[in-house]
Amino acid sequence: QGQLVESGGGSVQAGGSLRLSCAASGIMFRIYNLGWYRQAPGKQRELVASITSGGSTNYAGSMKGRFTISRDNAKNTMYLQMDSLTPEDTAVYYCNAERQVGAKILAYWGQGTQVTVSS
Q1: What residues does 44 pair with on adjacent strands?
Q2: Mean pLDDT by 10 residues, the chain (119 residues)
Q3: Sign of the alpha-carbon torsion through 84, 89, 94, 95
Q4: 3-state class percentages of the chain: helix first, strand second, coil last, to nearest 5
Q5: Could you give the strand order of the β-sheet that contains 3-7, starting from the edge strand earlier in sequence?
Q6: How far is the C-alpha of 24 from the C-alpha of 6, rounded, in Å?
Q7: Which of 1, 67, 75, 105 counts the highest number of beta carbons within 10 A?
Q8: Distance, C-alpha 70 to centroid of its chain
Q9: Residue 91 contacts by C-beta under 8 Å, 6 or more apart in sequence?
């Protein structure tokens, strides 16, 4: 059974940086497309950034230039480097791994890690 575990969240002042990690186990990590999502209180979960199995990346508009997603297939780990953080980045951050199996999407989610940015 696949499992994703996030770490690296915490509290930081505006303008600061954090690096989130997502460690995977029980899945063939290298073939999965990966993503970071976040959910702020009272808001829907939204995509932050994604990285395909081939290494192509995509960022939500407000994260471009501030966040960097990466993966290390040898360590079964995905990262999110977050710089120039603002209070609007405060949310629970979740990692996701998914791949298509026939007509279905096989997806795994982490439990989430809290990021709090104070002004």
Answers
A1: none
A2: 96 98 97 98 96 97 94 98 97 98 96 97
A3: negative
A4: 10, 55, 35
A5: 3-7, 18-25, 77-82, 67-72
A6: 9
A7: 67
A8: 9
A9: 38, 39, 40, 43, 115
